[in-house]
Fold this sequence. Notes:
Elements: H1 20-48, H2 54-62, H3 80-102, H4 107-137, H5 145-180
Amino acid sequence: MPWDEGARPSAPAGEPGRHPEQAQHLVDIHDGLRSELEQVRDVLDQVRRGHVTVGAARSVINTMTMRQNNWTLGAYCESYCRIVTGHHTLEDRSVFPHLRHRQPDLAPVLDRLAEEHVVIHEVLDEFDKALVRLVAEDGTGRAGEEVLEGVQRSLDLLTDTLLSHLAYEERELIGPLGRHGLG
């Protein structure tokens, strides 16, 4: 992990809120990100086992709900990275300042979440580069094992960091979002 999970601050306890639907909205968005990540993991596994070529994997990924215009296996951040970045930008520019104003003692958690956003974007960039190398090497429909290993390592790191971050964010922000809403 690129961070120490034990060093994460915790949100102060508080009363349940009157905006549970807004707290649930965060979980729903995160569930979509988790689902798409699992689909990408499955497609890469199929490529590694030789069940599909990189080209076929690109076609499968093109049908995913997160797909936007030109998203392919070799340009992963054209969409998924944009979605994650957009989600984090919304949080950093809107949700976090609102919560910071409404509940100042939440600042350490919000600061940590913002720091993790930066790390996740670096991990996404590295994953995208690994996918570009994979597609560049795959002129014949088969990729070399070394390149596939690099993609797998990048995907594993993305999975670990993103799932850890989403769980932490939900654990710490569900209560404050229920109390204060999204703004």
